[in-house]
Amino acid sequence: MTALAECLQRYQGRIEGVLERRLPPAGAGATTRLHAAMRYSVLGGGKRLRPILVYATGEAFDAPLERLDAGAAAVELMHVYSLVHDDLPAMDDDDLRRGRPTCHRAFDEATAILAGDALQALAFGVIADDDASGVPATARLEMIRLLAHASGTSGMAGGQAIDLEAVGRTLTVEALEDMHRRKTGALIEASILLGATAAGVHGGHELDALRAFGAEIGLAFQIQDDILDVIGDPAQLGKTTGMDASRRKPTHPGTLGLGGARVRAAELRERAVLALAPLGARAAMLVELARFIVDRTH
Known about the structure:
Blueprint: H1 3-22, H2 32-42, H3 49-60, H4 65-86, E1 96-97, E2 100-101, H5 103-106, H6 109-128, H7 137-151, H8 156-165, H9 173-198, H10 204-231, H11 234-237, H12 243-246, H13 252-275, H14 284-295
Antiparallel strand pairs: 1-2
């Protein structure tokens, strides 16, 4: 097993346990169905890339994993909330997510809306309530700010709004990349900054390097997703392929061609790796993750 594979396995195993503990129990009572929908959506698999980036960044600065758990859980909860809502009939109207029926198909549309709302609230609560980890309150406040900024109109929600308005239209490459930097890239960049902040990195050239790395690799991730929607194996991806084209959504393969999209993703990966140069050897795992993000098949 390679060092990267070992690292992914270790981080993925850890975040599963953290999420299990932070989610409300299945239990019984008035909110049983809501809790079940939340747990179904979060614990149903996934790459866990965003928590992995939190852990890898924090460990690059010698932070123990206990200090990083809250940020890792919060960003995954926020990500899953976005997936639950994106899959709704009013958005992308998807039936399959991570190889299983989407939340609104497994439960119902109203429950899915509430599950997404509750996961978003829980994401902020996980950081705010993290008193025992040793992360100072001022750092946790900054982490809440980072997550809010990445999730709002300048980030994920704004990108989704642009995406909905862009259906059937032709966007310039610049406009397309602005949409994707918001919709997908902002939360990936935030994952890296959450790990750094929890580890005690609060400014200077190191944080600038990480911010630049996150911006480039976040966009590269979305381009590779666009590519996989064209050439990927649905069994590996756990979702239906070809949906972007069928919905007439602007994508990098549609705008640049498949070859051009691959070139752009590789260019962004190299720019991301170059951005990490000021960190030296401590950034080795982040470099490996950058390559993994662009080379992945699911």
